Amino acid sequence: MKPSSINVHRKSATLELKFPNNEAYTLSAEYLRVFSPSAEVQGHSPDQAVLQHGKRYVVFKDLEPQGHYALKIVFSDGHDSGIFSWDYLYELATNHESRWEGYLANLQSEGKSREPQFIAVD
Hints:
Strand 4 and strand 5 form a beta hairpin. Strands 1-2-3 form a three-stranded antiparallel sheet. It has a single domain, classed as NE0471 N-terminal domain-like, CATH 3.30.2020.30. 20% of the residues are buried. By secondary structure, the chain is of the alpha+beta class. The chain is built from four helices and six strands.
């Protein structure tokens, strides 16, 4: 489902999506970064997925429309290879709570943190 509007809130590092069915969602840059659809994050199969960690302070660097079907998001940590289809963004939005809880549980079980080890200064 294609959003009817997309607003980037740079100060809060959130992406606000409104859909034609009047549903609206706000997704953080961190959430979108750790669930990037790129092969670098997802792998080429579920067992190849790479748990992303240390992404708490990631922000949006750029958003680029990809035709009429997707959005490419460039993140402040340099990650820029994920193409977020409208359907995938909708799936991330509507399943936010369960995905986020699963992510936090995975971090804990792997002894990882949302906090970065080093904070890069531009």
